[in-house]
Amino acid sequence: MLIVMEQHATQEEIAAVVVAIENRGYQARPIPGGERTSIGVLQNKGAVDASLFAGLAGVKDVIPVTRPYKLVSREFQPENTVIRIGDVTVGDGTLTIIAGPCAIESDTQAMAIARHVHKAGASMFRGGAFKPRTSPYSFQGLGKEGLDILARVRDETGMPVVTEVMDERNFDLVEAYADIIQIGTRNMQNFSLLKRAGKSEKPVMLKRGMAATIDEWLMAAEYILEGGNGRVILCERGVRTFVHHSRNTLDLSAVPYVRKESHLPIIIDPSHAAGRRDQVIPLSRASVAVEADGIMVEVHHQPDLALSDGAQSLYPEQFEALCREVRGIHKSLFSGSAVAAAG
Ligand code: PEP
Ligand code: MN
């Protein structure tokens, strides 16, 4: 349930509603908005009696929340969540382009790719230091050394860096380096990791599980918000289907659906959806047209020598072309203006 306060409700009135909620054994979660404060009622086992709160001073409306997820829902927060990372904003109608290699392999490799993508117009750099690989014999990432390289990329280019955390054991370490902490598809329902992410001060990019429904994905995001971290970016990266012409199947309809259901920003990773280079640019174009808040793309200066995901990594010139094209599409469709909250 959501209790919407009058625009001019006083701090005392808000505090009194919080106390009334807590006295019933529920948890109160004030959500300050642009115009008015709302207060979420959490931890209720069944339906909450609206009349308990409707008559309190300063209360405008009491709205039942019909979805299983609450804090991530548009019912709870109608305005888009906008996330600021340094000079970069995600979710305000601008197009965020994140690019870099699948894995950080060396200082030379990361710097070469970073210079290319920065020049081409990427706003953030990606690269895995801890890699979740299907085979234990594949390159597992450089670990802390990879994080140190990412820090140098950030120092030299000014781009914020996105990198994956694979387990709770390394959370503190990754958190200390990353500007955005990525939780990968294989960990979308790693609930202890999600709870730890909920305690983080850093924004979290939560990838959709490869066989997850959108409800499951939003419930996973709910864990992070419930823990106190509201800075979550959702990332659609394709789901497992029966096809062989792509590694996964990019679920473009996830974007309009998530926009309706949630106020959280959503970006698309066409690289892991496609698994092959020739589909990455077309899927990127579609991602922008469907109104994703951004894209995250794998780029390598020598894809044939890449230690991970070379087949889907774009050459730097291809990435340059992609940036030109998607910025053009974004401009022509949305003229760079803020995206209105979905109705
Ligand atoms: C990645 O982005 O490096 C990655 C491993 O992606 P996913 O979790 O979507 O497979
Ligand atoms: Mn990859």
- Write down how many β-strands occur, each being a DSSP E stretch of 2 or more residues: 14
The radius of gyration over CA amounts to 21 Å
CATH topology of the largest domain: TIM Barrel
Largest sheet: 8 strands, parallel, barrel
The number of helical runs is: 11
Structural class determined from secondary elements? alpha/beta
- CATH level-two architecture of the largest domain: Alpha-Beta Barrel
What is the CA-CA span between the terminal residues? 20 Å
Instruction: Please report the first level of CATH classification, the CATH class of the largest domain.
Output: Alpha Beta
- Return residue spans where pLDDT drops below 50 for at least 5 consecutive residues: 338-343
- Domain count: the total is 2
> Which assembly state applies to the chains in this document?
single chain
Please describe the topology of this protein.
Layout lengths: L1 E4 L5 H13 L3 E6 L4 E6 L8 H4 L4 E5 L19 E3 L2 E3 L5 E5 L6 H14 L3 E3 L17 H14 L3 E4 L6 H7 L2 E4 L7 H8 L5 E4 L6 H13 L5 E5 L17 H8 L4 E3 L1 H5 L2 H13 L4 E5 L17 H19 L9
Parallel strand pairs: 7-8, 7-14, 8-9, 9-10, 10-11, 11-12, 12-13, 13-14
Antiparallel strand pairs: 1-3, 1-4, 2-3, 5-6
The structure holds phosphoenolpyruvate and manganese (II) ion.
Characterize the structure shown.
The C terminus is likely disordered. The chain folds into 2 domains: 62 residues, Phospho-2-dehydro-3-deoxyheptonate aldolase, domain 1 (Alpha-Beta Plaits), CATH 3.30.70.1140; 260 residues, TIM Barrel (Alpha-Beta Barrel). The protein has 11 helices and 14 strands. It is 34% helix and 17% strand. Helix 3 packs parallel to helix 4, helix 3 packs parallel to helix 11 and helix 10 packs parallel to helix 11. Helix 8 links the parallel strand 12 and strand 13. The chain has 343 residues and is α/β, with parallel strands linked by helices. It has an 8-stranded parallel beta barrel with strand order 7-8-9-10-11-12-13-14, surrounded by 7 helices. The site of manganese (II) ion has 5 residues, from loops.
